[in-house]
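<purpose> Linking amino acid order to shape
<body> The protein record starts here
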Amino acid sequence: MGEINLKRNILVTGGFRIAIMLVIFITSWISTRFLGATLKGQYSYLITLVGFIWLVLDLGIHKTYPYLLRKEPEQAGNLFTWAFLLFLGEVVLLGILGTLFLPQWSKLLGYEFNLLSIWLLIGLIALNHIFNLMQMFYLGLDRIKENSLGQFFNQVIMLILVLVAVVFARELNRLQYILIASNLTMLIVVMGYGWNYLRSGIPKALSPMKMISYYPMGFRVFLSSLFITLLLRADVVIIKQIMGYQSVGIYSLAAHMVDMMQLASNVVGGLLLVKLADTEDEIKRWVLMKQVFILFVMLLGAANLAFVVLGSPLITIFYGKEFSATYNAYLWLIPASFGLSLGSLFNTYLWSKGFPMISVILPFLALLSNIILNYLLIPVMGIAGAGLASSISYCLWFILIVIYEQKLSGNRMLKYMMPKAEDIVMVWDTMSQFLKGLIRKI
């Protein structure tokens, strides 16, 4: 495969990301008003379950796709076929277990399922899994535009279906409709990913033993991703236990704003993983990381400042007084937005070195602190306590990674990571060129 052009990839992805985040905001705004606080809380809880379950089923293999495709490009057909076989297997297996043991699942997961709702949950689990596999697959192939288009259409189709509900289907079961729309949207996009790749030819025959040989590496990624996911979602489960679905709905809106910011770091992190896997020189890796860090600090700083000034009236205008407490919750989450984005990017750096065990240990320590702090602070501070717990834990995760890498490098890394004036000027010029190019296209 050719050399990765990280700047080009970030610029291409950045243009799509702005459009995607705008569509996500509109969809979230309309669907939140459509559902209300309590149903929004139930939806957020179910999506949290979906994210946890598909990650467990994945065992970390999706995160290895970009790395494997850069190291073994001839395995592309094998990886593609495996993704769709996993999807079919999950639908069949989970469908059988969900149907046969419906009461037990309701009790275990703390939600009263019927036959339709359990199948909608199963669909979201399997579709989220293959959707993430396809995103990583296209990143590894360096097919950035197709990948970005898939993510963009995923959001646009969902927005259209939500608008249809608001205009024509207000008397239906609202939560059920949103779950059906989510399933249909992902199914369409996953089929698009598959068809787009198959146009180039039939994949080579599946090699199960080769795929199984990747799982030991994937298992380390699985543990790391699992602890990171729990780190991000433990507060939702704990708030549900202590305060109920309405509080989950209010808090999840604030957490969703942080997630929107992290979407950018996830995308850049995926691009970065592919580039770092191609880069052997350690100093070049550090300089590359520094430039990306500067970019994110500038973007996050501007976004958070705008929210502090305008957030309170905008939340009331867009979501109603029912969600006014979201503003205070988000203020406590501002440090979390920095810790999460920068921690995610630095964790990508760890993964690019072959997914070492330390990338499992550090998020586990942060997760423990998050759980303990949530149980201590939520009873005292309410959902603001959950925001404070997340801020402390996310920043702890980032700081621990920096300390570890600094020691491992013989105290050399920070010398190359400390920003200089010319670095800031270079990043600023790059952002300016991107915005000028975007304006010209518009």
Remarks:
- Residues 6-435 form one domain.
